[in-house]
Amino acid sequence: MTRGQPDRSDPPVFDPDAGSGADAGSGADVDEKPAEGSAGAVARCDALPPAVRSKVVALASRGISKMPAGQVPVSLRPSAAFAPARRSRLLGPQIAAAVELDADFREHLAIQVRALPDVAAALESTTSEEASPTESAAVAFILRTEGWADVVESAIAAADHDASRSVHADTVDRLSAALAQARGDTKQARVRHRAQIDGLKSDNAALRQTLGQTRVQLRDAERRADDATTTAETAARAAATATRSLEADVRRLQARVLDLESQNSSARRAVRGDRDAEVVRLRLLIDTMGEAVAGLRRELALPPSNLLPADTVDAIEPGTESLVSGVGRALLDDDPLLLRRLIELPKVHLIVDGYNVSKTAWPSDPLDRQRERLVTGVSALVVGRGVETTIVFDGAELLHPPMVATRRVVRIRFSPHGVIADDIIRALVEAEPAGRPVVVVTTDRELATSVTKKGARAVASMALVRAMGR
Q1: Most Cβ neighbours (<10 Å): which of 27, 149, 177, 353?
Q2: Closest residue by Cα to residue 64 from 99, 19, 16, 23
Q3: Are the C-beta atoms of residues 106 and 84 closer than 8 Å to each other?
Q4: Cα gap 441→461, rounded to integer Å
Q5: Which DSSP state fits 365?
Q6: What is the pLDDT of residues 46-96, one digit of tens each?
Q7: Cβ atoms of 363 and 384 closer than 8 Å
Q8: 395 and 417 in contact (C-beta within 8 Å)?
Q9: What pTM value is reported for the model?
Q10: Beta 388-393 vs 349-353: how paired, if at all?
Q11: Contact 382, 342 (CB under 8 A)
Q12: What are the helix and strand counts (H, E) for the chain?
């Protein structure tokens, strides 16, 4: 803060026109003319240092407590019952303005302030060097004794000097801290750079060593390449020589083959001529014998018949065994080799109990995923074998069959609503002619027994699962 400029952090200066215009018209005398000369500048409260101004307000507040009500300005009378400290806190700007502008109030206040116990010592030491500049300036500003302006000027100068010294001390401290920080950063940077330089030196040494090793390896590789090139050229020349020799042999063999083919053709023509003559003779003999037999049959008038003498004996014929019953008798029902042998039979029909197999193989999968995996696995097993394959899924509880991606090599069927898949499988077995090999894959004992009685071969579901896995 410079002399003559108000501190912006202080309370606003009291405006007599805005705050107590009505009170001034009621009889309070306010001196609105500032003092002339050098005292004019220091007579304003806003020009005082904050400590001096606070001290002035505190002394005035204590003096107001001892003044008659008639001597107190109208704007300050409502605070007559306040304690001095509270009055200073609440009405500080108004008290300062009254001390600055109201000469009568200031004269009455001076009388009360002189009577304060701690002011007498200040009055005696206003010109002493040991006196507090703040105390002396505040008392001088109120009492306006001879030389009071110089005392206030000295206090303002001391406050400016202290503020300047504080600013300079803060600047020095800040610069010192910045210097220390810069020194520390420089030291850390020096250490970091030294470490980086050491690392670069180490990397450079390693790179030099690697470069040397690489050069040695490169020379070895070039030497090996030259040796390999020489060997390859020698081998190429030898191969070319061998190729020319082999080509000559091939040409000789081709000429020999042509000669042999010519001889073979001549021999075939000669054999064909002899065979044709023999065939003509045999055909003439057979025709002669046939005509003789036909004449004999007409002569005897024998009726045509395929009956043999043994067929006339009355006896019971033995039961015939189906083609699939004799395959893999030594194998277990769940052996995948048994299933593979059965589907290798000519014109075999493979019928799969769908859910029975899929729930055995993938019990934790949803049904749509089971169907997809079963159809894919069976298709991969029978593709290219010419095996008629039918997979039957149970749809007894479904109103509409679900969608399934069909395969060309596999027939997919669902049992109708209210009909189980076992009945459809039995109907498929019954629809086949007697003697055709039929294989049913299921672990349902009742279904396996019934289809076996109809001539089919039952295989366990695990056999198909293992065969698909292979």
Answers
A1: 353
A2: 99
A3: no
A4: 6
A5: S
A6: 667 777 777 778 877 777 777 877 777 877 777 777 887 887 777 778 877
A7: no
A8: yes
A9: 0.36
A10: parallel
A11: no
A12: 15, 5
